[in-house]
Amino acid sequence: MSSNAATAPARSIPWGAVFKEALIAAGIAFLLTVVMVGLFAADDVGGLQIVTRYDSVAVAVFLVFVGRLGLALTREGMPLPVLVGGIVVAAAGYFLDLPSEALRVITIAGGLLLSIRAAVTLWTHRASIDREERDRAMDRMGARVQRATIYIGPVAIVLALVLPFLPFSDRTTVDTATLILTYIMLGWGLNIIVGLAGLLDLGYVAFYAIGAYSYALLAFYFDLSFWVCLPLAGILAACGGLILGFPVLRLRGDYFAIVTLGFGEIVRVILLNWYEFTGGPNGVGGIPEPSFFGFAVFTRRPQEGETAFHQLFGLEYDSMHEMIFLYYLILALALVVNLFTMRIRRLPIGRSWEALREDDIACQSLGINRRNIKLAAFTMSAMFGGFAGSFFATRQGFVSPESFTFIESAIILAIVVLGGMGSQAGVVLAAILVIGLPEIFRELAEYRMLTFGGAMVLIMVWRPRGLLAHRDPTIRLDDPKIRKRTLGEAPSGGEARA
């Protein structure tokens, strides 16, 4: 085979078609960026003025031309020059003075991705693979990752525990990690409805809002502490899930999604217009911070009868103490949600959710009460959303309806779908990508939604079921251990050896 490959005639490159493909891509990029990137409205003394940024447009069009040319040459059998060119582009993006920091990040990332694509082609000796083979490969990878979480999980937990004390950790690092953990908790909560039960919920932010306003209003009107309001917020959000569950019992598919979307907007509009109770668009401020389990407060000068945290432990006062405590609080809440989800999916109700997800009609034919399991999914998922909302309120110290718009539901749903519906590890990975990267690259803030939308389109085309989607049943009857425990049968020798 190697001698045949060595004597095979060199493949001629259709340079005209390659350059035509790259020029068409560059033309499309020009039409998209000439207005969105080339024209910028800036505040000035005399009012808004249009500032032109055509140098950024030129760089963006050139990058698209080079990228498309590299992909075409890789497809035509020239991956080595593309590999070198990608490294050169990434180095140029790092060292050259580009018009904006956003273009610098895009240039470096684009060059590295082009190099990786060429390196994969050199390694596999294949310019492309068909979709079925790619899906099988991704399924195998997802299965390996999920099996590896037995070992990766404890390591990740230990890393999360020591994160605030690592040399590179500062206020920004801890605050960003706290935000990511909040969305991980929300993603794990929504994963019960979407990933396990297979019900598309577009109004999950409503339960988030109910939890946040429950704590804010209970603390404002009744002067209750965070530790008293936390379970109450979860209970009130669970009641909201129960109320939503009843009207949508007989709905499925798009109709179900539309009703949940309407419920989310109803909650937001009520919070916005019930001015006398919720403060309307002004929101609720002055929300008290959590104490150290009722023993100490995080202030420099505590009031009479109170003990400060730094006094309790004999430390110097540092505002980071409260931030680190909030980080560990949301970490503990997220781990509780994960442990609960992993345990309940092995119980009969969890297996009923999986049956409902796979086939609604077959689930009913087996005698499973769809009404009860749907209500259970809504109630439990809403409860965790309420817990996260209560934490959000105490962390921010202020809540308003603007914090609970549809875009929040879309982001939480995107985390679940991007990571892989039903995958706990996938939610963590997606939350880091969707929430962590924009926080790290704040220079790209004006392109955040554009990048977010483009990434979601790409993932839906390339990997519709998510990055780590792998739908093996939680329990298999052909597992000898399960048969012995559930059916009272001892595994045979052949099965035991298998």
Task: Please describe the topology of this protein.
Blueprint: H1 2-7, H2 15-36, E1 39-44, E2 47-52, H3 54-75, H4 79-95, H5 101-124, H6 131-162, H7 171-196, H8 205-222, H9 226-245, H10 253-273, H11 275-278, E3 284-285, H12 309-312, H13 320-344, H14 348-358, H15 360-365, H16 370-396, E4 398-399, H17 406-419, H18 424-440, H19 448-462, H20 480-486, H21 493-497
Antiparallel strand pairs: 1-2, 3-4
Helix pairs in contact: 2-3, 3-4, 3-5, 4-5, 7-13, 7-16, 7-17, 7-18, 8-9, 8-10, 8-16, 9-16, 13-16, 14-16, 17-18
Sheet with most strands: 2 strands, antiparallel
Shape: globular
Global Rg? 27 Å
Number of strands: 4
The proportion of strand residues reads under 5%
Concise overview:
By secondary structure, the protein is mostly helical. It has 21 helices and four strands.
Give a written overview of the molecule:
This protein is mostly helical. 69% of the residues lie in helices and 3% in strands. It contains 21 helices and four strands. Strands 1-2 form a two-stranded antiparallel sheet. Strands 3-4 form a two-stranded antiparallel sheet. Strand 1 (39-44) and strand 2 form a beta hairpin. The longest helix is centred in the first third of the chain and has 32 residues, at 131-162. The model is unreliable at 1-10 and 489-498 (pLDDT under 50).
